[in-house]
Amino acid sequence: MIKKLLLGLGALLALAVLLISGLVAKAYYTTEQRMNRTYAVKAQSLPITTDSAELAYGDRLMTAKGCRDCHGEDLGGKVFIDDAPLGFLVGKNLTKGKGGLPSDHDITDWVLALKHGIRRNGKPLLFMPSHEYTLLSEQDMSAIVSFAVTLPEIDREFPEQKIGPVGRVLTDLGKLPLFPVEMIDHSRTLEKTVEVEISPAYGKYLSTACQGCHRPNMRGGDPVAPGFPPVADISSAGHVGKWTEEQFIQTLRTGVTPEGKTLKPTEMPWNMTAAYTDIELKALLAYLQSI
Ligand code: HEC
Ligand code: HEC
What we know:
Layout: H1 2-35, H2 52-64, H3 67-71, E1 78-83, E2 87-91, H4 107-116, H5 130-133, H6 138-148, E3 162-163, H7 165-172, H8 200-206, H9 208-214, H10 245-254, H11 270-273, H12 278-288
Antiparallel strand pairs: 1-2, 2-3
Bound molecules: heme C (HEC) (2 copies).
């Protein structure tokens, strides 16, 4: 009797192992294929400026758009995910120092990365949120790139990136945005400028930076990755619907909500929103309270 039970359990276990290894094997196969696809996209050029006010604006956007969260405070690169099952991901060194961009990396290569999510050899950039940056106005993208090309060289080299088994399976299930290139309309042209004003329209433009976690409808939901908290609903249906402008601004600059909750900058990146101007935050609130 016991022997029979044990045999049955053994068979079940063997089946489970077989199923899981099948899932992982399939995920390895599909993610390898997607990683090695070549995209034939011709990137447009961008006007580049040396105007000091525009460069300062580009510097601020590097914080406000989250670039520094992944590429490091000095943009000389940093490891932002180091977890064997998930993967080893490096926000590349964006300077022309050792371990950084090649010396002949030019403006169209920047556009390829930001607008298309592709590296210069036509292969997809992994996990770099280009599906958000593709919606930047030409003026904002130009300020970012104009500033980026003035960065002093920093020598910082990293081991190669790796995607672990859990990272592959989550990608295969559509739970991890490893291939932003696949979410982009590559034929779309950039809007020249956006109107900077306290309006839901400008707030919507800025909310692209929130979408990756709070979802396109801003209603939040499941954690973005294992180990993170569920994402809050920031549409008018959530707490935000009741907040005043002062309360919203205070939350996004200090990480403390009117309800007394302290948000961790590693989970809700308020160090990024702390760099937003009053106009930007008020526009965001106007948009969030309109939906
Ligand atoms: C969520 C993390 C994340 C954020 C936010 C992010 N990046 Fe990246 N970025 C990456 C990763 C990871 C890579 C390397 C991808 C690869 O090599 O597969 C990368 C690559 C790049 C590259 C490509 C370099 C090359 O090899 O051609 C450029 C340029 C770049 N990022 C610029 C930016 C800028 C500018 C911003 C902000 C507007 C930004 N990134 C925001 C993660 C991020
Ligand atoms: C990297 C993921 C991520 C991004 C990007 C992000 N958030 Fe969040 N946000 C979260 C998470 C997770 C929470 C919930 C944190 C918790 O419960 O501790 C949260 C909570 C909040 C809260 C508090 C809500 C409440 O009811 O207490 C506000 C407000 C907020 N986010 C606004 C924004 C705005 C505005 C943006 C874009 C400019 C943004 N977030 C971008 C992950 C993110």
